[in-house]
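Q: I'm building a small set of examples for a reading group on sequence design. Run inverse folding on the following structure and report the sequence directly after it, with nothing in between.
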């Protein structure tokens, strides 16, 4: 399946030569987001409002679509965390680049993530947020990689399990590119190995 398979007859997109294959199509994302929203609606039916906490920048697309699919009252907040700095691999130290602007005491909080991989950042976050007194803290991630299963992090809502490959699209980037793609695809190694 090529990236333009959902739009036959459309001209080739700028990114087509960079994408090896599509892992999760635009249609599959839309259907899974609706299914996750239905499950979350049911689980939080008795809440007076759910606070979605998205992790910049990768979770923005998923969080926006999820918020629109939910029928319960929601508020949106964002955090930015880094364990990489200028490195390609994690430094092992999590830094808060942007903290919450909202008091989460006695609130139901749902952390929204694009992909759960090594789990370092999320492991730190799931210790940090409870220290601020929320009623509950759960997680939803559109994607989960195999390493995440080894971390013991409880991701209550998962969209898709994907292989341990370099994926981009639907919020995920390489060097700040590809976030806007409506699907999740595997980036060709030639793109990032030549940089």
């Amino acid at each position: 399946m090529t990236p333009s398979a959902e739009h036959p007859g459309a001209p080739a997109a700028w990114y087509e030569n960079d994408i090896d294959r599509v892992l999760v199509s635009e249609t599959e994302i839309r259907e899974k987001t609706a299914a996750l929203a239905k499950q979350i609606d049911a689980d939080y039916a008795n809440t007076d409002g759910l606070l979605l906490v998205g992790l910049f920048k990768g979770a923005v697309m998923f969080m926006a679509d999820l918020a629109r699919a939910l029928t319960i009252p929601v508020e949106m907040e964002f955090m930015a965390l880094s364990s990489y700095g200028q490195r390609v691999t994690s430094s092992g130290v999590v830094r808060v680049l942007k903290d919450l602007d909202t008091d989460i005491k006695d609130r139901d909080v749902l952390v929204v993530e694009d992909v759960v991989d090594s789990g370092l950042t999320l492991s730190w976050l799931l210790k940090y947020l409870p220290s601020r007194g929320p009623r509950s803290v759960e997680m939803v991630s559109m994607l989960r990689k195999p390493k995440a299963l080894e971390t013991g992090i409880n991701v209550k809502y998962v969209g898709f399990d994907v292989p341990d490959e370099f994926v981009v699209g639907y919020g995920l980037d390489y060097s700040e590119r590809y976030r806007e793609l409506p699907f999740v695809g595997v980036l060709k190694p030639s793109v990032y190995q030549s940089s």
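The first helix runs from residue 26 to 43.
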